[in-house]
Design goal:
This protein is mostly helical and 110 residues long. The chain is built from six helices and no strands. It has a single domain, classed as Serine Threonine Protein Phosphatase 5, Tetratricopeptide repeat (Alpha Horseshoe), CATH 1.25.40.10. 83% of the residues lie in helices and 0% in strands.
Length: 110
């Protein structure tokens, strides 16, 4: 569903793309990726407010979901909210630092 939704969006058939993304979200309600994908296609056609809602929904499902963190920062930039974008960037860098420290700890244990 994901790839087909992107394909319809690329062809300019947003009604079909959106219908597929809605089905994708319904089929995988706990997964952040369907929300992120829907937000992505909305962002690409300039529907930033709607895209923001989907990226935020993805992050409610998984606050560490990097693609939505990045894309929400892009939404803030497009809407002129540089402070919100800066906060997300700092949070993303902190998450990467923590993840890197955890990886190093695992490697040292082996």
């Amino acid at each position: 569903m994901n790839r087909l939704g992107y394909a319809y969006a690329a062809m300019g058939d947003m009604p079909r793309a959106e219908a597929l993304m809605q089905r994708y979200i319904a089929a995988m309600p706990a997964d952040p990726n369907p929300e992120d994908s829907y937000g992505d296609i909305l962002f690409k056609v300039g529907r930033y407010g709607e895209a923001r809602a989907h990226f935020e929904s993805a992050l409610k499902k998984d606050p560490t979901f990097g693609p939505s963190q990045h894309e929400l920062g892009d939404v803030f930039a497009m809407l002129g909210n540089q402070a919100g974008r800066g906060r997300l960037t700092r949070n993303r860098h902190e998450w990467r630092r923590i993840r890197g420290e955890a990886s190093n700890t695992v490697l040292r244990l082996h």
